[in-house]
Amino acid sequence: MFSNILKKDLSRRTFLKSTAATALSAGLPSIALAAGEPIKIGFLAPLTGATAAWGAPGLSGCEIWAEKVNAAGGIKIGDNSHMIEFVSYDNEYDPAKARTGATKLIREDGVKFVMMLGGDTWPGVQPVADRTGMLFSTLLPSDLSPETTTLLAPTEVHPIYLVTGVQWLAENKPELKTAVMCAQDDALGLPSVATYLAAFEAAGIEMQDEPLLFDPATTDFAPIVTRLLSTSPDIVCLDTCYSDYVHPICEQLFQQGYKGQIISATADFYDQLIAKTSKEFMEGFIFQFPDFDDPALNGDNINFDDANGFYEEYNKRFPGQWGAVSWEYAAIMQLWKAGAEKAGSVEPDAVLAAMKDDGKGKHAFGDADWWGTEMFGIDNALVGDWPVVVIENGKAVIKGFKSIPAWYEQHGDLLIKHMSAYDQMWNQRG
Amino acid sequence: MRNFVIWVALAIALIVLPNLVSFSQQEVLVFLTINILVVASYRLLTLTGEWSLGHVVIMGVGAYASALVTKELGLWVPLGIIVGGLASALIALALSVPLFRMKGFYFLIGSFAAGEIIRLLWKRFRDPFGGAKGIKGIDPMPDFSIGIYQFDFFEPVSYFYFSAVVVALCLWILWRIEKSPVGLTFHAVHWQDKLAQASGVNLRRYRTMAFVIASGFAGIAGALLAHYIGTINPNSFDVEVMVFVLTWAIVGGTGTFYGPILGCVVLTILNEIVLRELGLEQTRPLIYGLILILSILFMPNGLESIVQKVTRRKDAK
Predict the structure, then answer these.
(1) Which residues form the Leucine-binding protein domain (chain A) (predicted)?
(2) What number is the average pLDDT over the span B139-145?
């Protein structure tokens, strides 16, 4: 209250100054980084609830990454080296809690960068980002718009990479010609539906029915699966269902005798899925998130440091918990570290400029371009190759890397058509 | 005079309070203030003996209505908040026609179904409700100055003061209603319905009245929330949130006006501040659930029973 007395205008600059003053007076870290002072990074994602599988494993991955970086001397900013420290806040995938978390991380903990899952939670955080100028990252580029100048999607270009799975499927199993799809009716499900529709159309695969959208509160998937199978499709597409949906849907597909192809964005904890169904049932399951012990990740094109070692350490500490996001937040940190070291600063503006310096970035799966003006209204998504993963003999195997920009160059009009139909283009959202 | 001093002291405490807590706790304070109105309005409905599972969706009706009239029609935000309350009350009036053909458990399930229909409509009609992604970029309260104080509604302290005034006014109205002959009739409808009916009380009319009034205030709470966080979506008002409202009411107790408010304050502080500060982020649901079970086992009359015991002892002395 008292800081507001007689105050007529609060610009971003005065806001940052007042935050620094308050932080100093409260004995919290100041904005300028002292020699040897640890760099704090915010982790603002769901750690509990239905979407926790896309938050908590990422935090575990970040801790492993930080230990490794710190053991090697930390991050070099100018002449000083700094240790990395993560500060987490469970936003429960709720925009109000995400706003509270962003406030805490920035104004109390003094973080220099905040990683988020994004989606429903980003609009709650956006006013905080606008006001503070803090650099944020999201796994969901559908959060991007011309207004989100300090938001980056540097690792996962959800859902655009999904086209690579369908492209591989069409090239390798051309006999499969019909598909059905189901998805939860939310901010993650809908753009994903539009992308799969574009990818199927580009691949000449016919949709037998409208995508079946179910409520996120759904727990009984028997009727959904029965309806999906009623047209005897060659392919069942599970869109970007959370693992809490992928598992019961697969169980139902198994119980209802489905023997065809399944394609999905994720297959988190697929070993449990195999245990619930059978190795034969899961054989050939296509998804997009590899295990990092895959030999294909040792290639020269891969920019994720020691992917195999990271996977081994992760499984040692968190057995059975490897999931789609286990490596993603760590990969974002790798990009941020390179940006900060290049800029010689951890301040958001400087790191952002350094990361996007020449329009290219070192994405985990290969060198990539900052892209997205047409799709998102801003080129803040790092887009390049993405792996196609298939379960073979009970194990996820990378079958190849496909170029997203190359697909987009050929079929971008289809993607825009379907995204527009679902009101998912940047100028249609909100 | 004693009451006047207490109220003045409370007002001063509320003015000072946000300046004594951290930035994130100020944010929690804003949401707590709004939730107090939700749970207090819910209690008004329970006075007639009916428990609804649609109260949070009705709150959402107010949020959507206020967001739309301010965003699409350019209505001034404070007026939008009032429109939000009225919209919720009107929807509740319409819903009361089928719902109050039922009682007890059937009303509970009916209210859940009605709420789900409303939520599905929000999802189905992207225009104007924004579909599953909801509405973003909702107009914030316009900043203003009162001479010595600049209200900047991005700041949680300013919004806390604003919402505290609105909620205090609403609580005062709810209190007056409960203490009025209408409120006494609500109690009679619950505890002595046959006798009340024999005395000429139209049970259905009073149940409808409680439902509509409670919904109107829930709508105001929803509108307050929407204009603070700037975004709403159907999941913000789902049954999980309703379970929280129910637990606040049950743990606090619904026998007194302050019971559900006490439940809301204690459980919110526990869940959002204490457990987080203790570094138990990922185990919060487990601990929260355990505390709920223990409190129901050992305090079946809610937290309000502790207050009653303490005040009785003081009175006896």
Answers:
(1) 38-392
(2) 92
Q: Are A286 and A388 in contact (CB under 8 A)?
A: yes
Query: Is the predicted pLDDT of residue A56 greater than 50, yes or no?
Result: yes
Three-state DSSP at A326 gives coil
Q: Is B151 on the interface with A (CB under 8 A)?
A: yes
Residues B35-69 have pLDDT tens digits of 999 999 999 999 999 999 999 999 999 999 999 99
Give the C-alpha separation, A334 to A339, whole Å: 9
Picking from B16, B17, B19, B27 by the largest number of A CB atoms within 10 A of its own CB, the best residue to mutate is B27
pLDDT digits (tens, 9 = 90+) for B73-110: 999 999 999 999 999 999 999 999 999 999 889 999 99
> Quick check: B157 and B14 in contact, CB under 8 A?
no
* Residues of chain B contacting residue A190, judged by C-beta atoms under 8 Å apart: 131-133
- Give the single-character DSSP code of B169: H
Half-sphere exposure at residue A137, Cβ-oriented, CA atoms within 13 angstroms:
29
Contact A110, A29 (CB under 8 A): yes
CATH 3.40.50.2300 domain extents, chain A: 33-158+313-383, 162-287+385-421
| CA-CA-CA-CA dihedral for A299, A304, A309, A311, to nearest 10 | -110
Provide the pLDDT confidence category of residue B132 given band limits of 50, 70 and 90.
confident
pLDDT cut 70: percent of chain A above it: 92
Closest to B131 in 3D by CA, of A305, A61, A382, A188:
A188
Residues 6 or more apart whose CB falls under 8 angstroms from that of A231 comprise: A178, A180, A208, A209
DSSP H helical ranges for A30-77: 56-71
Report, at the CATH architecture level, how domain A33-158+313-383 is classified: 3-Layer(aba) Sandwich (3.40)
* Two structure tokens written together for B87: 């919209």
Inter-chain touch A4–B18, beta carbons under 8 Å: no
**Whether the predicted pLDDT of A421 surpasses 60:** yes
Distance (Å, whole) CA B284 – CA B266: 15
Q: Which residue is listed with tokens 């990479």?
A: A161
CB of B19 within 8 Å of a chain A CB? The answer is yes
- Look up the CATH superfamily of A162-287+385-421: Response regulator (3.40.50.2300)
pLDDT given for residue A31 in this prediction:
53
CB of A120 less than 8 A from some CB of B: yes
Answer whether the bond into residue A159 is a cis peptide, omega within 30°: yes
SS3 A153: strand
- The residue assigned the tokens 């998804």 is A287
Residue with tokens 């796994």, as numbered in its chain: A139
What does pTM read for this prediction? Answer: 0.85
CA nearest neighbour of A149 among A397, A372, A414: A372
Burial status of residue A220 (CB atoms within 10 A of its CB: 0-12, 13-18, 19 or more) = exposed
Length of chain A counted residue by residue? 430
Give the pLDDT of residue A430.
57
Whether the bond between B128 and the residue before it is cis, its omega within 30 degrees of 0, is yes
Q: What number is the ipTM of this complex?
A: 0.88
Taking CB atoms and an 8 Å limit, are B133 and A94 in contact across chains?
Answer: no
Ordered by start, the domain boundaries in chain B are 21-236, 238-317
For the CA atoms of A105, A111, A116, A119, what is the dihedral angle to 10 degrees? 60
